[in-house]
Amino acid sequence: MPVSNLKNIPYSVLDLATVLDGHTPSDTFKTSLEIAQQSEVLGYKRYWFAEHHNMAGVASSAPSVLIGFIAGGTKTIRVGSGGIMLPNHAPLIVAEQFGTLASLYPNRIDLGLGRAPGTDQVTAMAIRGENFNAAHNFPRDVEKLQQLFSAGNRTSNVRAIPGEGLDVPIWILGSSTDSARLAAEKGLPYAFASHFAPAYFEQAISIYRNNFKPSIYLQEPYVMACVNVVAADTDAEAEVLSSSVKRMFLGVITGRREMLKPPVANMNAHWDQLEKEAVEQMLYYSFIGSAETIHENLEGFISKYGVNEIMATSHIYDQKAKLHSNKLFAGVFSQTFEMSF
């Protein structure tokens, strides 16, 4: 029997703190903790939150707070940002916040950094003000963060306390080739947002690997791919459950963003052909089906792209179904499809 490509691949979770239709952010945070605690037991390596603003259906506007909440409710799983949108913040504040987290939860905190605003342009202006074009300073701000975390910064006039001298791994996040070049230049691990921006995935990871420069942080390229996952006992059941994420992305392309909706039996009643094609293009790197189906498709994905780690994001309306999907997906990596939790 051939050795599985998935045997030694770490698997992780990206949580957007999605708010369900008819529920509140408070409800979301409680279910996130339940998923994180289950993920820890199931062997997931990381549990990350992404920074978003001005979205009724997404409650992850303050990821550093959520990271502390989840880290405090778990024991071993790494918790971090996927990511902090650095141009929205002063590097010193980020260093202090994550230095505080790393002091509270040693060797468990990750800092993923992105340059996008994580919101619409009007809200980005409200966040950044006169620093609206701060994205242009992203490479320099990453360097500032590295300096603030370094033990050698102790003689500086500006110090991150806590933060200085602590081991807070920095990741570069991206959905384009620019981020790939930056991650390669700085010798940092690279996480690609293939769960919503598949178009540049193959090109970006190729650029990253071909231009990677070893650093004190990382000797060889390390690629994490974030993908959509909806697992269920049967392919048919997973297809129905996946209608929730399809409706969510339909809201993205039409500008009618809503809270996460319950699944529907027939998506054709909710989109036209052009909308369907647009949503399916955004969801190109999605793994939907039974554990067996996902295992087969994920084997092909790993074989083709050779990624070092998979991060799953799962927009499933029913919490029991989401927990079951999370369990099934973990089983894909150990090939124990009948796991119990």
Summarize the structure.
The chain is an alpha/beta fold and 341 residues long. 42% of the residues lie in helices and 14% in strands. The protein has helices spanning 25-41, 63-72, 91-104, 121-128, 138-149, 177-186, 201-211, 235-241, 243-254, 273-282, 291-305, 319-334; strands at residues 11-15, 46-49, 78-85, 109-114, 170-174, 190-192, 223-231, 286-289, 309-313.
CATH domain class: Alpha Beta
Structural class: alpha/beta
Give the N-terminus to C-terminus distance in angstroms: 28 Å
Strand order of the largest sheet: 1-2-3-4-5-6-7-9
The number of distinct helices, counting runs of at least 4 residues, comes to 12
Major sheet details: 8 strands, parallel, barrel
Helix content: 40-55%
CATH topology title: TIM Barrel
Order of helices and strands: EHEHEHEHHEHEHEHHHEHEH
Q: How many structural domains?
A: 1
Give me the CATH architecture, please: Alpha-Beta Barrel
State the low-pLDDT regions, or none.
none
Strand content: 5-15%
Number of β-strand runs = 9
The radius of gyration over CA amounts to 19 Å
The average pLDDT value, as a whole number, equals 93
Morphology: globular
CATH superfamily: Luciferase-like domain
Family: To bacterial alkanal monooxygenase alpha and beta chains.
Protein name: Alkane 1-monooxygenase
InterPro entries: Bact_Lucif_Oxidored (IPR050766), CmoO-like (IPR019949), Luciferase-like_dom (IPR011251), Luciferase-like_sf (IPR036661)
Domain Luciferase-like: 21-300
Question: What descriptors fit this protein?
Answer:
12 helices, single chain, alpha/beta, TIM Barrel, 341 residues, 8-stranded parallel beta barrel
